[in-house]
From TrEMBL:
Pfam families: AMP-binding, AMP-binding_C. This is Long-chain fatty acid--CoA ligase. It comes from Nonomuraea rosea. It comes from the Bacteria. The lineage of its organism: Bacteria, Bacillati, Actinomycetota, Actinomycetes, Streptosporangiales. Residues 1-16 have a biased composition (Basic and acidic residues). Residues 1-21 are annotated as: Disordered.
Length: 453
């Protein structure tokens, strides 16, 4: 997946074009290419060449990206994780690695490194835990991401003259993909390394494209600046968000996928999710109107997990893959309606409730920013449907209004019996609600989670 060879080409063709802007300043393509070459020579001098696994945990996003691209140029596989992990944590989540980069790589003098990239090389590894579980290292071939680059350009209009804001950690596959796609295109990647908060308006004043997760889109639309397109992935996009974006003059391209699957479906015009180019989709074992499992077959699938890590990824003999996400019954040519991860389903009184179905209805209530539905243990029913609203410093809607909406749009089994508010929902690196952590905090009596009466 890394695109060192693309960076070198852009450096030869447009050396003065800004490549990256980070917390420490800006690098042109010529400057970035020189840094990558020097760092690659250092790795090769340390014996971390073709086939090596190089773990990278750096706080500065430009230094991290430089190290990952240097590993790619040297023929190694970069494994990107969190900068605050110590060696013991790396060993637990990744097993044996050939080298670890915990500080910016030094520059080694010497002749330019000649890329020897092959489509089938294992060229990127990153961590995923979804909304539950310990991190697992997902590894993929170069072609499994680079082959999709032109499709994304066609869908979004991203080109070499764009300035692309990537406001999240590169340890997230969503933001990592956005960064390397931007560099492969020859555009400028703006990398604050995390959500920029008070400096968001300044970034948007010059950005033409932003990659982000759904719950960040409203902040962007308050001050869109020169923004043309928002590329949104990682979780369900509220229907009203697209209308709000249109009012702000921002086009939205949203997509559904997973770290293990990459792109599965895309909605470029508000008409609903349809298969991403070269992707086949099946929804299996759904009975009548009941959701079934999403299975995909495409060139964009990951190789699997590093080491002996267990995870939700499953394959069949026909090359189809699933991570357990659920969707309504689907036929080719129709809109795909994803209903979330099957392992998050709530069993209550003999009924199965998909949390995303409930969340979709409750997000229509005025004043609801984001909301997560989980199951709370119950001695007789197994679990009861529980809704937790993100209040973010404002008063949540009344429980009476929430319950009225639930009665009007949900079946009896789907309606929440318990209602809570929390200042900020816990989230994964990819921006998805961390359901298991939220349930744990609720069960532990977290004082920040208050019950709505």
């Amino acid at each position: 997946m890394p695109v060192a060879e693309h960076v070198l080409r852009h450096a030869a063709e447009r050396p003065a074009r800004p490549a990256v802007r980070g917390p420490q300043g800006e690098l042109t393509y010529a400057e970035l290419a020189e840094k990558i070459n020097g760092a690659a020579r250092h790795l090769l001098g340390q014996g971390s060449g073709r086939g090596a696994l190089v773990s990278v945990g750096l706080d500065d996003p430009v230094a991290l990206l430089t190290a990952a691209l240097a590993a790619d140029l040297a023929g190694a596989t970069p494994l990107v994780g969190e900068p605050d992990w110590d060696r013991a944590r790396w060993a637990r989540v990744a097993g044996a690695v050939d080298a670890h980069v915990g500080a910016p790589l030094p520059y080694a003098e010497g002749p330019p490194v000649t890329p020897r990239a092959a489509p089938g090389d294992r060229a990127w590894a990153c961590f995923t835990s979804g909304s539950t579980g310990r991190p697992r290292a997902v590894v993929r071939t170069r072609a499994s991401w680079t082959g999709s680059f032109q499709h994304l350009c066609d869908l979004t209009g991203i080109g070499p003259d764009d300035v692309v804001l990537i406001p999240g950690p590169l340890s997230s596959s969503l933001y990592a993909f956005a960064a390397v796609h931007t560099l492969a295109t020859g555009a400028t990647a703006v990398l604050p390394g995390r959500w920029p908060g008070g400096s968001l308006a300044g970034h948007l004043a010059s950005a033409s494209v932003v990659h982000l997760v759904p719950h960040r889109l409203p902040d962007v639309l308050k001050q869109p600046g020169t923004l043309r397109t928002a590329v949104v992935g990682g979780a369900a996009l509220d229907a009203g968000a697209r209308a709000a974006a249109a009012c702000a003059g921002v086009g939205v391209v949203s997509y559904y996928g997973a770290t293990e699957l990459s792109f599965v479906a895309v909605d470029a015009d508000g008409g609903g999710l349809r298969p991403f180019p070269e992707v086949e989709i099946e929804v299996r074992n759904g009975a009548r109107e009941r959701p079934g499992e999403v299975w995909a077959r495409s060139p964009w699938l990951a190789d699997g997990y590093l080491g002996d890590a267990a995870g939700p990824l499953r394959r069949d003999a026909g090359g189809w893959v699933s991570v357990g996400d659920m969707a309504e019954p689907y036929r080719s040519g129709e809109v795909l309606r994803v209903r979330g991860r099957g392992d998050g389903a709530i069993q209550t009184g003999g009924a199965t409730v998909v949390p995303e179905d409930v969340e979709e209805v409750l997000r229509r209530v005025p004043g609801v920013g984001d909301i997560v539905v989980i199951g709370s243990p119950h001695p007789y029913l197994g679990a009861v449907v529980t809704a937790v609203l993100e209040s973010d410093g404002v008063a949540p809607p009344s429980r009476a209004l929430l319950e009225a909406t639930a009665r009007g749009g949900l079946d009896t089994a789907q309606r929440p019996r318990r209602w809570y508010a929390v200042p900020s929902l816990p989230r994964t690196q990819g921006g998805k609600p961390a359901r298991a952590l939220l349930a744990e905090r609720l069960a532990g009596g977290d004082p920040d989670i208050r019950r709505l009466s």
